Amino acid sequence: MTVAKNTICLWFDKDAEDAARFYAATFPDSEVTAVHRAPSDYPSGKKGDVLTVQFTVCGIPCLGLNGGPAFKQTEAFSFQIATDDQEETDRYWTAIVGNGGQESACGWCKDRWGLSWQITPRVLTEAMAAGGEEAKRAFEAMMDMKKIDVARIEAARRG
Question: What sign does the dihedral 16-22-28-34 (CA atoms) show?
Fold first, then answer.
């Protein structure tokens, strides 16, 4: 197995394997590639406990570290998942929020492990890239949403 030169390391209390398996089951091009157990006791675990989990999320290499309760996830890091339509947006949103997660604003939500996700329809990204009045209308429509409503963004783009 080749280890990627750059890997995102995500700190978990003790549930890195559960989180990685959830991500692998939820998102395309995602899988758990290795589970490594601690060779001896460590500050937040015992010999034989799952220490690290190698996995991918939409092709992005990640390492889940069971480092204990010292550090928590924050919104300073999030995965942004581009979606093609409302059905895909709903599917990912429901998977994350419906599995013990939490809604936030403007397409953001948190999973049950505290990791932030942006479920972002491409129509919103395209509207923002267009600039001008189109971007302004789409942005203003988005500001009062939790999960992004594709039809409302499309309507805002048209004016």
Answer: positive
